[in-house]
Every structure is written in C-alpha cells, then in structure tokens.
Automatic annotation (TrEMBL):
Protein name in UniProt: GNAT family protein
Organism placement in taxonomy: Bacteria, Bacillati, Actinomycetota, Actinomycetes, Kitasatosporales
Any one Gene Ontology molecular-function term assigned to this protein's record: transferase activity
Domain N-acetyltransferase: 1-167
Domain of life of the native organism: Bacteria
Family: Belongs to the acetyltransferase family. RimJ subfamily.
Enzyme class: transferase
Organism: Streptomyces mooreae
EC number: 2.-.-.-
This protein's record includes keyword Acyltransferase: yes
UniProt xrefs under Gene3D superfamilies: 3.40.630.30
C-alpha cells in the first residue's frame, strides 16, 4: 500500500478493466470513459487535488508494478468531528488473502497517527458479507442500516454502516 501518484494512471486503467465485472455489484455505474487512460488521468488528477486540499487520502495496493486495489479516506473533516469515510477494493484474483484487511488496518493507523482522526465510517452493501467481515476483523462496529444509502450498480442500495473509534484524545 502506497500513496496514489500521477504515474498510477495506466496501472489503474488496467486494474479497473480487469476487475470491471468483479466490482460492478459494489460500485456506481461507470461510464465507458472511466475505463480509459484519459478517464483515469482525470480521476487521479481530481483525487490528488482533493488530497492537496486535505479532504482525501488515496492509496493504491500494488504487487510489484501491478495495481491490485485501492484504499481511500474521503470526506476528511477535522475540528471537533475529526472523521473520514473509508472505501476500498481488491482485485478479483487477490480476494480472500488478507489484502483488504491489511490495507484497512494500515489506513486506520495513518488516520489515527498522522491525521489525528477520531473515527472512521464505512458502509458495505447488504449483499457484500465479505466486506462486512473485513470491517469487523479490523475493529469496526455496526452502527445501523441505511436504507437506499448509495446508488450502486444502477439502484439505490441498502448498506450496513460501520464506525471505528480510533482514540479518545481531545482534538488539538
């Protein structure tokens, strides 16, 4: 797991093309442009701009030079809230090998140690028990079910919402 870089465009393009069917049930509908180098270049540029503004922390998961997943802390809010949302995905060929669990744990360590966040929130589609298991293994607690929470694969989908409290320190 390493920070996203501009040079990851081609690797992300290949990874999303390779995982198009695997990710379809868990992702919003993607335009054809999303699966192109230009689409990924635009996306990476936007993510790096959000990172520079302090609202996003994007990483890629790599095996050698191959991108095999991604982890993102988005909607980073400081002040008294000190929270972010967690998203992640892993290549279909790497599922079930602990990669997602390790990446989520690493993101939580950065969120606490470097960003000083108090909590992280994550959601998993009801039909995705594997993602729910990753979150539970990483110490997230269920906080409820959100009806029609996100528009995923062409429909508004219910999600199980989780949170992890990272520490009890005062903001500062």
């Amino acid at each position: 797991m390493r920070p996203l870089e501009e040079g990851d465009v081609s690797g992300l393009c290949r990874a999303y093309l390779r995982n198009r069917d695997h990710l379809r049930p868990w992702d919003p509908r993607r335009s054809e442009d999303f699966f192109t180098e230009q689409g990924q270049a635009d996306r990476v540029r936007g993510q790096l701009e959000e990172r520079d503004a302090g609202r996003l922390v994007p990483w890629v998961l790599t095996l050698g030079h191959e991108v095999v997943g991604a982890v993102t802390l988005s909607n980073v809010v400081l002040g008294p809230f000190r929270s972010a949302n967690l998203g992640y995905w892993v290549d279909a060929e790497r599922v079930g090998r602990g990669l997602a669990t390790g990446a989520v744990r690493a993101a939580c360590q950065v969120a606490d140690g470097q960003l000083g966040l108090h909590r992280i929130e994550a959601g998993a589609v009801l039909a995705n028990p594997a993602s729910q298991r990753v979150l539970v293994k990483c110490g997230f607690d269920v906080i409820g079910t959100a009806s029609k929470y996100l528009h995923i694969d062409g429909e508004w989908r219910d999600h199980v919402l989780f949170q992890k409290i990272l520490h009890g320190r005062s903001p500062g």
